[in-house]
Amino acid sequence: MGRLDTTTALSWIRAAADAITAHEAELTELDTAIGDGDHGANLRRGFSTAALAAERSAAAGQEPGAFLVDVGGALISSVGGASGPLYGTALRAAGKALPGPDADTAALAAALQAGLDALCRLGGAAVGDKTMVDAFAPAVTALQSAATDDLSQAALLAADAAEAGMRATTPLRARKGRASYLGERSIGHQDPGATSTALIFRALADALTSDHA
Amino acid sequence: MKKLLNDPESAVADALAGLAASRPELMVDQEHRVVTRRAGVRPGKVGLVSGGGSGHEPLHSGYVGLGMLDAACAGEVFSAPTPDRILVATRAVSAGAGVVHIVKNYTGDNLSFDMAAELAREEGIEVEKVLVDDDVAVEESTWSAGRRGTGATVVVEKVAGARAEAGGDLKAVADTARRADAMSRSFAVALRAGTVPAAGRPGFDLPEDEIEIGVGIHGEPGRRRGPLRPARALVADMLDAVLADLPETSDPVVAVVSGLGATPLLELYVVYGHVAEELARRGVAIARNLVGNYVTSLDMAGVSITLCRADAELLRLWDAPVDTPALRWG
Fold first, then answer.
1. Which pLDDT score, from 0 to 100, does residue B239 have?
2. Which CATH number fits domain A6-211: 3.40.50.720, 3.30.930.10, 3.40.50.300, 1.25.40.340?
């Protein structure tokens, strides 16, 4: 079965921070090609700070919803650039939509849908614009339509969907964010934002499978 | 990468410490990376806050002082400052008459300043946002994040600061800033990319005989590459692009020729000579000019040309006294 409680949510944020740190060079590389090369360093810095906030929030006994709100707030005040407000707002909105001490697949899917909606509202991006939304949206869809109530299995499907969405950004022409200034020249490069989103969903799957193995 | 740094991580903090040591009239809040005027804001004066990623020096901290900005927020290199820090700056310069946020049009800057403005309004501080979007190199703007804010920022901050210093209210200061932006257009070319300290290598590679045309100030490549040609020909093409989009009035222009960080002054004067010659040929009078490093992109080699159509009022505001690290007259 599996449910997301604060302990699992904390494992998720720790795993996400580790994954971002491990992939910093790759994110920098991707962002240097079509952006300004700051995505790796910004996210590594921000997620390290957010991970500290996460430890404090969990230690204070927050429920997973309030925990995600705390982590989102830390991301907004530590990442910088566009990705801090975007990821932070998404996590805060997801946290506000997550009731109770633990969440099943349907509840987490609904919360992440709320996070995705907030992200799209704030950034104005839609699927196909070559942004983090291209990995986030299919992951939420996979979670919603997972034909299993095993949350860790559903999270694996979501991570796979996020990675497929990430890879599918390569042939796209950017319409949002800094890569959009390149026009046609943005084609042929994988989007760094979609890449970090895929890392975050993979971290969720890792946290859930290791906790409930 | 060869840079005069201790550690890429501390680049912004170390530069702000140097600014503080050099300019005792400025106050540097290292915790929040906010630079303000030590004298504070006169009660009843509209506060002016700008900011953005670092790496564009003297933008924005070099424009804090009498007749220009009241506060500048320094983000990490090329990254917008976080909303909580912009809020700290907004509070610091709020003197009862509201605060103008001057924001270069980039996704991160927009998001962060909007979030900060929302928080400030919740605290009862009136905030007006002025967007700077002068870069004509961004075409098809409905399909992109819109025209970027580049060289016009210095013009906008100068005239808005003068308007605020002269007692203009929140709306008047914001309107002046918006008018300066609406009357300004810029275009830049790069000969060599800059290197973000944390990335450690140039944002793009260019063959010896090629340039990036329509480049931004964040190391992102331009819209296309072209052959390096004599300065005269490059300037003519850049002015074609700027003038095609610049509002047509009979007013003269303020012309800003800014190096992008690693361009010798000798070359900037070569460029300015051709700007003056070309504009004279096209019947556009230059009322004022700046030649130097005003809006840069780390160690990018290249130049941006900004023209602002300035009527008598904008010229009067341009000429008003200013005393900042990077602009000083009157």
1. 97
2. 1.25.40.340
